[in-house]
Design brief:
The complex is a heterodimer of chains A (337) and B (253). In chain A, 61% of the residues lie in helices and 2% in strands. Chain A is built from 18 helices and two strands. Chain A starts with 8 loop residues before the first helix and ends with a helix. Chain B has 253 residues and is an alpha+beta fold. Classes of the chains: A mainly alpha (337), B alpha+beta (253). Chains A and B meet through helix 6, helix 8 and helix 10 of A and loops of B.
């Protein structure tokens, strides 16, 4: 039976050759010299994986004139070549001319079929950079967040191996999707203590600047607290843009107290109002901004809680003068203010 | 305002210790005029901070004058005689090597080194400390050097990775110019760590020494298509724990 007759046949050849990149390339080069069309067909199989394509990048240009390579394969090869040569401007220009759906599919394929491959040490950094590129294209260029769980796996895998992950983390949070944070929060209750610690770091729960630096030490309690915080602030969350390149303790996500107080949604991406504020809301916010940080915190929590529990009463309360709002909240909250 | 041992400190007598127009004098004047409170346990700690800020600026200027290259972490390079290149692209001090020799080598054989802007900041701090501490003390205290960014910093320098809001900006502060709409294909330009040189200019690795407008223009030139947000100088600062380092200095000299 032909080795091209079954799923992931090129992967199997690579395994058969002892996962030796040089031997695999030699084998493929000989195949291409014997029969370029057959080599092209092998690459175009529906079961082709990204690691195989990555290993054979240098061999593929000679096959282009066969006409046997599909557009997605040609796109993947060109993207990887331009990226590998460090030509960001050319890559940007190239991507502008491509069908964005093809680019999205290529990036998704690179990530889905390539994320769990352990590349040989001599090409590992280059391969990681190629996966970073796939994530950049998928999340930042194509706004596709469907692979966030896989990207999170990749981040933690690299953390465990002490590998470079800062760009990957940055792309992950560039999704501006609170779901990304929930995925990381799930690792707060990982069985692996190092994963728990790294999840805390990614969520900004381990630094001195974090809202609760002492925090609960019980992982489940910490997870529940964090998820509750996400729920309580769902419409007020925004991404700060803080990164591992900027600070040792980035806090990727914060709550906008003004939005929480008004119970009006902001964009997680740029902290702008999803809908414009009316005059009454603008006045409320002006007065709110004059309060101390502690007063803002408590009043926002009070407003948000009242809004969830009794919308009718909240509407009456938010229409009151600011000093009366505060007095009402003080009465109900006792000594918190 | 300056507070030493819980008492407001009049800097007038100390001003005379520094030449008019010097960076040290400027630093002291800024601290004294600030609406923020700068607290010290001793005059030594204040003097140490002023001196170290001067050395940070000197080190930034010195590093800018070398052939130390800008490269992304995945292709960072170092002199293997002194450093081990780590899988994350950072450099760890090689066993048996004197920390002082390893830091000096970056300046002496700079062509062998290349990495991103955050690493340059860490190098600047170590070079500044090397100018202040006697070599023997430096080699005794800073034994676990990992040059990368803010994630593996040895204890005496831990605070260099923390960002704080500030209304006063001093020579030697690390600032950050964020580029929120950066082209995702050039993530290394998502922002630039810079050292405030105290004369309206900043040092940023890969860019050189310029006013902030130049950095912003360069970063803006690397934004994604349809970008709406300009790069900007953040209102935060970072700096070492000068008091801790001053105490270490006093104990080891």
């Amino acid at each position: 039976m032909s080795i091209f007759g079954s799923a992931r046949s090129l992967d199997r050849v690579f395994q058969h050759l002892g996962n030796d990149p040089d031997a695999f390339r030699r084998w493929f080069r000989e195949l291409a010299e014997r029969d370029a069309h057959q080599a092209a067909r092998a690459l175009d199989g529906r079961y082709l994986s990204f690691p195989v394509l990555f290993l054979l990048l240098g061999e593929i240009p000679s096959l282009i004139e066969t006409g046997g390579l599909s557009q997605p394969i040609l796109t993947a090869v060109r993207i990887c070549e331009l990226h590998r040569s460090g030509k960001a401007d050319e890559l940007t220009a190239y991507l502008k001319l491509q069908d964005s759906e093809v680019v999205r599919q290529v990036a998704k394929w690179m990530l889905e079929t390539g994320h769990d491959w352990n590349a040989p040490a001599e090409i590992a950094e280059e391969y990681d950079a190629a996966l970073d590129l796939a994530v950049a294209l998928l999340v930042c260029e194509c706004n596709d967040n469907t692979e966030l769980p896989i990207i999170a796996d990749l981040i933690f895998k690299r953390a465990n191996n002490g590998k470079h992950l800062h760009n990957l983390v940055w792309y992950f949070f560039q999704s501006y999707n609170p779901e990304a944070v929930r995925i990381i929060a799930g690792r707060l209750i990982s069985n692996d203590p190092s994963e728990r610690e790294f999840a805390k770091k990614l969520l900004g729960l381990s630094g001195e600047n974090s809202a609760d630096p002492g925090g609960p030490t019980d992982p489940y309690r910490q997870y529940e607290d964090y998820m509750r915080w996400l729920d309580d602030n769902s419409n007020a969350l925004y991404f700060t843009g803080q990164t591992l390149q900027m600070t040792s303790d980035p806090e990727p996500l914060k709550a906008d107290l003004g939005a929480k107080y008004l119970c009006k949604a902001i964009s997680p991406r740029d902290r702008t109002w999803v809908e414009p504020l009316n005059e009454q809301e603008c006045n409320c916010l002006d007065n709110f901004r004059k309060l101390t940080d502690k007063e803002k915190e408590v009043l926002a929590a009070f407003s948000s809680s009242l809004y969830r529990n009794n919308r009718r009463v909240w509407e009456q309360w938010i229409a009151l003068q600011p000093d009366i709002q505060i007095r009402t909240a003080m009465t109900l909250l006792g000594d918190f203010l | 305002m300056i507070v030493i041992n819980r008492e407001r400190f009049d800097p007038s007598p100390l001003l005379g210790d520094y030449a008019a127009g010097s960076l040290e004098r400027k630093t002291l004047e800024l601290i004294a005029a600030s609406s923020m409170t700068y607290s010290y346990n001793s005059l030594n700690q204040l003097r140490f901070e002023i001196r170290m800020r001067r050395e940070i600026v000197n080190a930034a200027i010195a590093l800018n004058g070398t052939r130390f290259a800008f490269t992304v972490f995945q292709s960072s390079t170092c002199n293997p005689e002194y450093w081990i290149r780590m899988p994350d692209g950072g450099f760890a001090l090689r066993d048996g090597v004197k920390p002082s020799d390893a830091i000096r080598d970056i300046f002496l054989q700079s062509r062998l080194y290349g990495t991103e802007c955050a690493t340059a900041m860490v190098i600047v701090y170590y070079k500044a400390l090397l100018e202040i501490f006697p070599e023997e003390a430096f080699n005794k205290i800073f034994t676990n050097i990992h040059l990368m960014n803010w994630q593996r910093i040895e204890r005496p320098l831990r605070e260099i990775g923390m960002i704080r809001r500030s209304s006063t900006y001093l020579p030697g502060d690390r600032r950050y110019i964020a580029n929120p709409d950066v082209n995702p294909l050039t993530p290394e330009l998502q922002g630039e760590n810079v050292i405030d040189l105290g004369d309206g200019r900043f040092y940023g690795h890969g860019f050189g020494i310029h006013t902030v407008d130049v950095f912003i223009a360069a970063l803006n030139a690397n934004r994604r298509a349809g970008a709406e947000r300009s790069a900007y100088l953040m209102d935060t600062v970072s700096y070492p724990n000068f008091k801790l380092l001053s105490d270490l200095y006093d104990r080891n000299t």
